[in-house]
Amino acid sequence: MPMKGSGAAELDVIDRWDAGVGWLAYPAETMQRASHAVAVDGDVWVLDPLDADGVDELLEEFGDVAGVVCCLDRHKRDCAAIANRHDVPVFLPEWMTGVADAFDAPTRRFGRSLADTGFRSIRIRNSTVPPWQEVGLYAPPGDDPEEDPVAGTLYVPEAVGTCSYFRTDQERLGVHPMLRLFPPRAALEGLRPERILVGHGEGVMEDAHRELRAALERSRSETPSLYLKTLKSAVLG
C-alpha cells in the first residue's frame, strides 16, 4: 500500500451526516488523506480537498459552494482547482504566512470565525521548526441539532487523526506522531465536539469528545507503542 496515492482518483464517501460529507480520493493509500464539505444555510464550505470524479455532484447535494478552506500550510492539495471551478476564493487564516502565493486562485483571509458559518477558528499550531501552521474549525454544540446540524462539529486537519500511523491498536483517535510528546492540549482540551472530522482518516462520529480527551491524555504514554508499531510496519512491510 503506497504512503501517498497518485494518478486517477477514486471517490470513496465517508463521514456523511445531515450537514456534511467527507471523501477519500485514494482509499488505498496509507496517509488516508480526507477531504470534507460542510453546509450552512445552503452554502457549502470545502475543507482541504483532493479532487476526484464525482466531487462536484457530491457537493451539489448540499448546496452551492461558497468557499474552499485551506486549514494547514501543507494542505494545498486541490484547493485552487476546486475553488476556480466554482468561482470562489480559497480562504486562509489571517495569521498563516507564506501560502497565499502558492494558490493559482483568488484568496481571502478569515479571523476568529469562518465568515458567518458558526465555525470559530482555533490556532492549533504555528511553528517554524518544523514548519507547521494549522487551524482547526469548531462549531460548539447547540440546544437543537435539527435547527443547527453543524453544531458540535470539530475539524482538525493534522494534529489528530484516525489513519493507522496516527494511532495504536488501542486508540480510535490518535495524536500525530510528531506531536505525541507535546500534544496540542491548549488548543483542543476542553472542547466537547459531537463529531470530529480529520484530515487523515475517517471521522469520529460518536462519543467524539471522549475520544478526543482520551487521545490527548494517552498521547505520551502510548508513544512507545505507536513508534514500535510503525517500526514493525516498516520492517515487515
Topology summary:
Elements (H helix, E strand, L loop, with lengths): L11 E6 L2 E5 L9 E7 L2 E5 L7 H6 L3 E6 L9 H7 L4 E4 L13 E4 L9 E9 L2 E9 L13 E4 L3 E2 L12 E2 L9 H4 L6 E4 L9 H11 L4 H14 L1
Parallel strand pairs: 4-5, 5-6, 6-7, 10-13
Antiparallel strand pairs: 1-2, 2-3, 3-4, 8-9, 9-10, 11-12
Written overview of the protein:
By secondary structure, this protein is an alpha/beta fold. The chain has helices spanning 55-60, 79-85, 185-188, 208-218, 223-236, and strands at 12-17, 20-24, 34-40, 43-47, 64-69, 90-93, 107-110, 120-128, 131-139, 153-156, 160-161, 174-175, 195-198. Strands 1-2-3-4-5-6-7 form a 7-stranded mixed sheet. A hairpin with a 2-residue loop joins strand 8 and strand 9.
